[in-house]
Amino acid sequence: MRLAVAVLAVVLTACSAAPPEGAPVPPSASVPAGTEAVSPSASVPADAEAASPSASVPADAEAASPSGSPAESTPAQGGLRFTRIAELERPVAFAVRSGDRRLYVAEQGGRLRTTDGDTVVDLSGEVSGGNEQGLLGVAFHPSGRWLYLDWTDKAGTTHVTEWAYDGARATRRRDVLTQEQPFANHNGGQLAFGPDGYLYIALGDGGGGGDPEGNGQDLGTLLGKILRIDPRDGKPYAVPEDNPFVGKEGARTEIWAYGLRNPWRFGFDRANGDLWIGDVGQNAWEEVDYQPAGSEGGENYGWNLREGRERFRQGPAGKLTDPVIVYPLNEGGNCSVIAGFVYHGAKIPWLRGQFLYGDFCAGWIRAAPVDEPARDRRVGEVEQLSSFGEDHDGELYALSLAGPVYRIDPA
């Protein structure tokens, strides 16, 4: 398994040729400790563009959005500033709670904390300590009354666990869902409530190089999927009646989408409900997948028949949903895609309607117009980028596994 950082390597590292274990952290000039980082402005150096995902799309690739527009048609834009607001221990996930202005951050070592330093839940004595294990995801019920964490126990089993939460104490703990993992890697971990009020859960393919058990394409397992459940109706949860595989013989009804390798982070567009999924690649390609609002679910994103837009193994493919962004592994230090959000805040007018995503090892952050994602542009860097976050106002944040939590501001 390729490790980006010897001890701190997280679930998002892809399996392919890379620096050996113990290799130093890839350098990032934009975020020296204790400072604010200003991103490049609209004039991106030519060498920086070499790692552009848009440049990596093959000319004959089937794309979900127009591409190939001349660079000069890109709207003018300003710069970004990454303002450090907290220093935590291996932050990997971010959430906000209804009626609460605090920002909640999950630390991979097992604690859920606020950015002002309070500890809400401490699972540090229960989580497994592997590179791709630990506390991996956090979400609050739309009412704000319940808290959900995604984590792996010392046996490697994934738990989605619920607590009642009144803003002061987390009580009445119960497991909503558990999933045994055949290997220690590819656990996914993202949790989010969709615009429909249901809980969406990302699970990786169970690990092992190349999905040896074929879980990505197997509708009889939850591995390699995004799930959609109602955690507050039923024991331990209910499956919405309109889930795409309800009534299909042999299929797990919790499944919403499949054919995913390690969907470490996904995010809903707060304006229209579109879903953007970052799926960490195997040997050659990182990808961002897309599901439009109003989808009835059931999309097959291709793994392990396909990696990116290229065939990975032989077998009947059926209808596959193409990624909207792909970029090459190992070029310019690339290793693991980190999906973010479409910006709808008020502070940065030129960024509105653009999807932010980045790469863990290379550290770059790019903004892609939602109607033409191949026309993305580099807008900043964060060392060991592990996740993005979105607050109540639609403003965005970037988390570094090295410890800092940054608010994304106009330069």
Automatic annotation (TrEMBL):
Ranges of compositional bias, category Low complexity: 30-76
InterPro entries linked: 6-blade_b-propeller_TolB-like, Glc/Sorbosone_DH, Quinoprot_gluc/sorb_DH_b-prop
Keyword terms, alphabetized: Signal
Region (Disordered) location: 18-77
Keyword Signal: yes
Signal sequence range: 1-17
Superkingdom, natural source: Bacteria
Domain Glucose/Sorbosone dehydrogenase positions: 89-399
Keyword Transport tagged: no
PANTHER family per record: ALDOSE SUGAR DEHYDROGENASE YLII, HEDGEHOG-INTERACTING PROTEIN
Protein name: PQQ-dependent sugar dehydrogenase
The organism of origin for this protein: Nonomuraea ferruginea
